[in-house]
Design goal:
The complex is a heterodimer of chains A (about 350) and B (about 250). Chain A has about 350 residues and is α/β, with parallel strands linked by helices. Chain A has two domains: about 230 residues, Thiamin diphosphate (ThDP)-binding fold, Pyr/PP domains (Rossmann fold); about 110 residues, Rossmann fold, CATH 3.40.50. Helix content of chain A is about 45%, strand content about 20%. Chain A is built from 13 helices and 15 strands. In chain A, the strands form three sheets. Chain A has a seven-stranded mixed beta sheet, with helices on both faces. A five-stranded mixed beta sheet of chain A has the order 10-12-11-14-15, with helices on both faces. Chain A is globular. Chain B has about 250 residues and is an alpha/beta fold. Helices cover about 40% and strands about 15% of the residues of chain B. Chain B has ten helices and seven strands. In chain B, α7 links the parallel β5 and β6. In chain B, α1 crosses α7, α2 runs parallel beside α4 and α3 crosses α4. The chains are: A alpha/beta (about 350), B alpha/beta (about 250). Chains A and B meet through α3, α4 and β9 of A and β2, α2 and α4 of B.
């Protein structure tokens, strides 16, 4: 497929289809409605199914059921809808079922507004649902990256038998950009040993559950899950460095905010100002090590997010007391302008 | 002398296990019927059960088919995902009255209305069993529970919900029936209904729903025999047995 101009939501949907996803369960919510619309038109034609659920609560449980048979499954929603899915996400993680969830973030809290924001960082990376579980969280910064990460998400979901979230701010969903969407075969994971519906092949039945009434068994289950999360931290950390190696001011930002910051960095570099950035691509697992390393040589770390300071906490954990960390945020659907970022950095320098 | 076997463990009942259910509880009977139906239809290796939240959460310890647990009330949605991705499998949910008629009301109405080709076994014992006897949406007027110690007051809690009748207002479902396991004659009918429900799923007729009037001797505070008498004397007048929707009859 050649490069074509596509809207972010539709590019994500097509990327999923090209990665072999034939089933989608979802519920309408702005600003991501083009994903279920696209899926409802395409999936029945390729032998799959689209189901419009009665709620996000039901949608995520349909996803759980579809994932439980070892099938590539996706749903998408936006912030308040993801809140409703949190119960299901905890069960999916607890039962170790692969699934891909797209969150096209809008501004909160509550009903908030429909404009882009990054206010669900905590919800995505620190929980949302009950108990000790983790989502793999991928944050695209361009539409091509949204395409690539969506396809990667299916591999990761099956590799770890864990839900993977594409955490895209509203810009990623609503803007248009040229993208190339290739057919993505991905890794072959044998699902017969664990997936439902294979009793005949396996010769015995299987159970997917998170209920362990014996405390010893439940602790064992938690330890096993935690080992998986540790493996993600060892093997799946992804980030981009942008003029980070000699930066006096090191920016940490993700998604669209990072993309805006790049323009400011390019402009300031022309003035000879040493500004750079580390952009986390995986928000969980978080790239603590590279931020720690780059921050140790910088004079100042500036965290920018379209929220009131959430990833800030992880950056502070990485940096410690070695380098001052400050925060520059916007919320409510307002994004940073290149000019104000430049001004902010001039103040710091 | 020729030996005639009149009782044996169903093949799909796990060998050597005994249930954790209280003496006289209707879950055991219903589980056994379910196993007999699975055996008679020869579908053990292609059946996926959805275990509920409640006393039957560990039904997979007794019934030897593939199982997935569901969050409280969500079994019908989970079943939808299972069946849509594996239409060759036979999928059933097994839900109590708190699960199905309270927290999962949206899910049950919509699974029925979409006509998902799955089967629901709905255990109505007019109370929350596992959590210790709280009022259910099906608790009878005047019936005492730990959260309505003076008895259910319809002015405060409304009248008990009749789920068969409610779902039968929908055009889509293929089979809706209410049975009981309170006496042997009812058990025979219950088995027939459950078998028919599975047959309707297998032949692709659509969604099938069987409500089973059961009991809860422990939380009702009754001896098992008395409890089943109460199912007949108190529950049946309000929850009449019968078939509320039948695809085949409608087609005639």
């Amino acid at each position: 497929m050649a490069r074509v101009l596509m809207k972010g939501t539709e590019a994500i949907a097509e990327a999923a289809i090209q990665a072999g996803c034939k089933y989608f369960f979802g519920y309408p919510i702005t600003p991501q409605n083009e994903i279920p619309e696209y899926m409802s038109a395409k999936l029945p034609k390729i032998g799959g199914a689209y189901v419009q659920a009665e709620s996000e609560v039901a949608a995520i449980n349909m996803v759980m059921g579809g994932g439980a048979t070892g099938t590539k499954i996706m749903t998408s929603s936006s912030s308040p809808g993801i809140s409703l899915m949190s119960e299901g996400l905890s069960y999916i993680a607890g039962c170790e079922i692969p699934a891909v969830i797209v969150n096209v973030m809008r501004a909160g809290p509550g009903l908030g507004g429909i404009l882009p924001a990054q206010g669900d960082y905590f919800q995505a990376t620190k929980g949302g649902g009950n108990g000790d579980y983790r989502l793999l969280v991928l944050a695209p910064s361009t539409l091509q990256e949204a395409v690539d990460l969506t396809q990667l998400a299916f591999d990761l979901a099956f590799k770890y038998r864990n839900p993977v979230m594409i955490l895209a701010d509203g810009f990623m969903g609503q803007m248009m950009e040229a993208v190339e969407i290739k057919e993505y075969k991905g890794q072959d994971y044998d699902v017969v040993p664990w997936a439902l519906g294979n009793m005949e092949k396996r010769g015995k039945r299987t159970i997917l559950k998170s209920l362990y009434l014996d405390p010893g068994d439940l602790e064992h289950h938690n330890i096993k899950l935690n080992e998986k999360y540790k493996k993600m931290q060892e093997e799946e950390v992804r980030y981009e460095e942008f003029y980070a190696d000699d930066a006096d001011v090191l920016i940490a930002a993700f998604g669209t905010t990072a993309r805006i910051a790049k323009s400011a960095i390019v402009n300031l570099r022309k003035e000879g100002k040493k500004v750079g950035m580390v952009r986390p691509i995986t928000l969980f697992p978080f790239p603590y090590d590279v931020i720690k390393e780059r921050a140790s040589k910088a004079k100042h770390v500036l965290v920018m997010e379209m929220n009131m300071g959430q990833m800030l906490e992880d950056v502070k954990l990485a940096v410690g007391e070695r380098t001052p960390v400050s925060f520059f945020g916007h919320a409510g659907g307002i994004s940073h302008s290149v000019k104000e970022i430049e001004e902010k950095i001039r103040e710091i320098l | 002398m020729k030996e005639t076997k009149i009782y044996e463990r169903p093949k799909s009942w796990k060998k050597g296990v005994h249930t954790h259910y209280c003496p006289g509880c209707g879950h055991g009977i219903t589980h056994r019927i379910l196993c007999e139906v699975i055996d008679e239809l020869g579908i053990q290796e292609k059946t996926i059960g959805i275990a509920p939240v409640g006393c039957a959460a560990m039904m997979y310890d007794y019934i030897d088919v593939d199982f997935c647990e569901a969050a409280h009330g969500r079994a019908p949605a989970l079943a939808t995902g299972l069946k849509r991705t594996r239409p060759d499998q036979v999928v059933f949910t097994y839900q109590g009255d708190g699960d199905l008629a309270s927290i999962g009301t949206a899910e049950i109405v919509h699974v029925a209305n979409r006509g998902e080709k799955i089967t629901t076994i709905f255990i109505n014992n007019a109370i929350y069993g596992m959590t210790g006897g709280q009022m259910a949406p099906t608790t009878l007027v005047g019936q005492r529970a730990t959260t309505c110690p003076e008895g259910r007051d319809p002015n405060l809690a409304g009248y008990p919900m009749r789920m068969c009748e409610l779902l039968a207002t929908l055009k889509t479902p293929a089979y809706i029936a209410r049975v009981s396991v309170a006496q042997p004659k009812y058990i025979i009918e219950a088995k027939k209904a459950i078998k028919k429900a599975f047959e309707y799923q297998i032949s692709g007729k659509g969604y099938s729903f069987v409500e089973v009037l059961s009991n809860c001797p422990t939380n009702w505070g009754m001896q098992p025999v008395k409890a089943f008498e109460w199912t007949v004397s108190a529950m049946m007048p309000y929850y009449p047995l019968g078939v509320f929707k039948d695809f085949d009859k409608e087609a005639e």
